[in-house]
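Predict the 3D structure for this chain.
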Amino acid sequence: MTDIIMPELTPVFTAYEALVAEADKVFARVSELHPDCVTCKPGCSDCCHALFDLSLVEAMYLNARFVQAFDYGPVRSRILEKAAEADRKLTRMKRDYFRELRDAKASEEATAHIMEEAARARMRCPLLDAEDKCALYEHRPITCRLYGVPTAIGGKAHVCGKTNFAAGVSYPTVHLEKIQERLDALSMEIRDRVKSRFKELHTVFVPVSMALLTNYDEAYLGIGPAPKES
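Done. Predicted structure below.
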């Protein structure tokens, strides 16, 4: 279903779902070519502990699907409690990394070490249940869908440590910048379609926890005139 949030956004989310389908096809193709290397299977939740942010279109889509699936009840409450705790931890982590970077006094070596440390940081996704299953698996973000195959961003390759892809061997690789460009374009389209007064709305990235906690209402999206100062 794509009739979510606002009717004018239906084409945007239809396009996003098409991009998701493309990502799934790429994953399936790499799995078909290298079945011994792709080790994703039920019960493995390695990708569910990775830290990454969502663009506006993915965050709003995930939020809408969450509301749709869990509009009330104890499961929704538990997920939101976990999301709030995860967001508090992320805030502390980012604050600590900022302090380390500031104290590094622009040393390239120290900065690189801190950035590598941040890239290795792990945190359990609030959508992961007690059985290590995703509560919104069918609507999981693209990063989750591609985690088990080789990817590259900024010229740097990455692959899940639990796979059997061998170092130094050439494999089909997903260039994430191309996907991100399309996500950015869809986020800009959201800004334009809702006629947001926030010109930089499309540049806001949030973790899964904040995507679940946020109320993407008119105030957040900057729809209508700015509130008058009292």
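Residues 7-72+127-216 form one domain.
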